[in-house]
Amino acid sequence: MSAITTDTVELGLQITDETCCVPASGDKVLQFAEAELLAARFKALSDPNRLRILSIVSSSEELETCVCDLSEPLGLKQPTVSHHLKILVDAGILHREKRGVWAYFSVVPGALESLASSLLPKN
Amino acid sequence: MSAITTDTVELGLQITDETCCVPASGDKVLQFAEAELLAARFKALSDPNRLRILSIVSSSEELETCVCDLSEPLGLKQPTVSHHLKILVDAGILHREKRGVWAYFSVVPGALESLASSLLPKN
User: Fold this and answer.
1) How far is it, in rounded angstroms, from Cα B84 to Cα A88?
2) Nearest-by-CA chain A residue for B116
C-alpha cells in the first residue's frame, strides 16, 4: 500500500457476487466528491509537458530535481516550466522544497501508486 | 501484460545506474509524441462524471452496460451521458457496440491496466 492512504479513492472496479446482474444503482457508483478528487489529479496529468516533467523528476536517482535542470531537456522557458510544476504540486503529485535560490521537486511518496491503484480492480 | 500493448507508453520512472547523478538530459525525457498519447487518455479521466461512468461500466458483472442504465444512477440527462461516453470511447478506454436500439459499453481490455502501469516504476 502506498504511504499516502488518507485520500486514496478507487473506482471500485470489482463488485461482489451479490450484485451480479443487477443494473447499476446509485450506491454502486463512485461518489461525486471522491470522483472530483481523482479527476483533479488526472487533470494534472492531462498535459504532455507535465508528463515529461514527471518523467524527469520521477526518474531522478537523487529523488529530487532542481527547477534549474528542467528547462533545457524539455525545451521550455522557465515560466512555462514553473507554471506546470505548480499544477503538479497543487494536485499533490509533486513536493516543492526551496533551498537557497532554487526550488527542488520530488514525487510525493505514494501519489503515483495511489492513482494507479484507483484504475485497477481491487484485490 | 495487457491485451493492448502497441501504444503502451511509460513515464520511465526508473533509470539505470549509468545515469546516476547526471542532470536530466533530453534523451531521458518521455518523448513528446508518447506524452501526448498518454495525456489524451488522462484528459478523458479528468472529469468526475466520466470517472463515475467508468466505475459503473468497469464493475458490471456482465462486462458491459447499456447506455439506458446510466442516466438514473448518475443523475444525468441522456445527452450528457452520451457526451461523456463518446470522450471515453475516443480515448480508447471504452468500447461501444450498438445492438438494436441501444448501445452497450465495455472497458477496452487492458486499457486501464496500461494507463496504471505508465504511472508505476518499470520492473
Assistant:
1) 25
2) A116
| Chain B contact present for A102, CB below 8 A | no
pLDDT at position B19 over 60 = no
CATH class of residue range A28-119: mainly alpha
Would you state the cell numbers that stand for residue B92, as one nine-digit string?
A: 480508447
Phi, psi torsion values for A51, nearest 5 degrees? -65, -35
> Could you report the per-residue pLDDT of B37-64, keeping only the tens digit for each?
999 999 999 999 999 999 999 998 888 9
- CATH architecture of structural domain B29-119: Orthogonal Bundle (1.10)
The complex scores an ipTM of 0.78
Q: What is the pLDDT of residues A46-60, one digit of tens each?
A: 999 999 999 999 998
Question: What is the count of residue pairs from A and B with beta carbons less than 8 Å apart?
Answer: 162
8-state DSSP, A76: -
List all residues of chain A from 42 to 81 with a beta carbon under 8 Å from chain B: 42-43, 45-52, 54-56, 58-62, 65-66, 69-70, 72-75
Backbone angles phi, psi at B89, to 5 degrees: -70, -45
- Write down the pLDDT at residue A123: 47
A51, A60, A69, A89, B13 from B23: Cα distances, Å: 18, 8, 6, 21, 15
